[in-house]
Design brief:
Order of helices and strands: HEEEEEEEEHHHHEHHH
Distance between the termini: 191 Å
Number of strands: 9
CATH class of one domain: Alpha Beta
CATH superfamily of one domain: Band 7 domain
Radius of gyration: 55 Å
Structural class: alpha+beta
CATH topology of one domain: Tetrahydropterin Synthase, Chain A
Strand content: 15-25%
CATH architecture of one domain: 2-Layer Sandwich
Largest sheet: 4 strands, antiparallel
Length: about 290
């Protein structure tokens, strides 16, 4: 009985010591074995591992990609138009031994504070070297990659790797919005006025060219019409002359009928003329008047 009473405490102590000497590393973690604050072992592979109980301790860190949201940062680009930039970063612990030596017992929280200062400095350096228009355009992707590379170089001493940097928004400070919008509106109105002036100038040129074309076409058409009319009159006169030469009496008769047609038009035509005038010759006789003999 006394022996059993002695064995049970020894077994309990043995089990406690054995349990204290075993630790488990998850696949999402990295572990350091510390002895009096000094790094004695690094465990990066998942599974069971052993340590000296009561003397050594195990500190675990995330092996996954972590997120860091920085505070909104006010920067001044080359064109002196201030912007409020809100960014975030993705980072991971690349060298757990160097990470422990850099941040000590502060762990990931202390690393994030230092990493945020590095990101802010890189953001100011990169965005301060370009104009605000480039920041607000599609070139932002190249700028974000440049910030990432700059921060990655400066954060190597922390044992971390900056995986990615993204700008969530880049806005004007609230106190500058009204003035900036007014300036942008004035610029757009000036551009619109320039476009309208250029449009009016182009319209005037088109109208002037159209008017000139109309005048040229009308003049050309009138000239052609006069030529055709002259040629037609010449042909008509030639035909009349030939007809008159063939039958002078018929030509005289035709001219008399034409004269009657022009003179006796309308319902109230009145004429004051001598009854024995040659005008009525064909009304009194079917022969043409004879020419007076010399």
């Amino acid at each position: 009985m006394k022996r059993t009473a002695l064995i049970l405490p020894i077994l309990v102590v043995g089990l406690f010591v054995a349990a204290s000497s075993v630790y488990v590393v998850d696949e999402r973690e990295k572990a350091l074995v510390l002895q009096f604050g000094q790094i004695k072992a690094v465990k990066e592979e998942p599974g069971l591992a052993f340590k000296i109980p009561f003397i050594q301790e195990v500190v675990k860190y995330e092996d996954r990609i972590l997120s860091l949201d920085t505070q909104p940062l006010e920067i001044t680009p080359l064109d002196d138009r201030r912007l409020v930039v809100d960014a975030f970063a993705r980072w991971r612990i690349a060298d757990v031994r160097q990470f422990r030596q850099a941040v000590g017992a502060g762990g990931e929280a202390r690393a994030e504070n230092r990493l945020e200062r590095i990101l802010n400095a890189a953001t100011r350096e990169v965005l301060g070297s370009v104009s605000s228009g480039k920041i607000l355009s599609a070139d932002r992707v190249a700028l974000m990659n440049l910030i990432r590379d700059t921060a990655r170089t400066q954060s190597k001493e922390l044992g971390v790797e900056v995986v990615d940097v993204r700008i969530k928004r880049a806005d004007l400070p609230s106190q500058n919005l009204n003035a900036t919008f007014a300036r942008m509106r004035a610029e757009r109105e000036r551009e619109a006025a320039d476009e309208i002036a250029r449009g009016n100038e182009a319209a005037q040129k088109v109208r002037a060219q159209a008017d000139r074309t109309v005048v040229e076409l009308t003049s050309e058409a009138r000239k052609n019409a006069e030529i055709i009319r002259g040629e037609a009159d010449a042909k008509r006169n030639a035909i009349f002359a030939e007809a008159f030469g063939r039958d002078p009496e018929f030509f005289a008769f035709y001219r008399s009928l034409s004269a009657y047609e022009k003179a006796l038009t309308g319902n109230n035509s009145s004429m004051v003329i001598s009854p024995d005038s040659e005008f009525f010759t064909y009304l009194k006789s079917d022969k043409a008047p004879t020419a007076p003999s010399e």
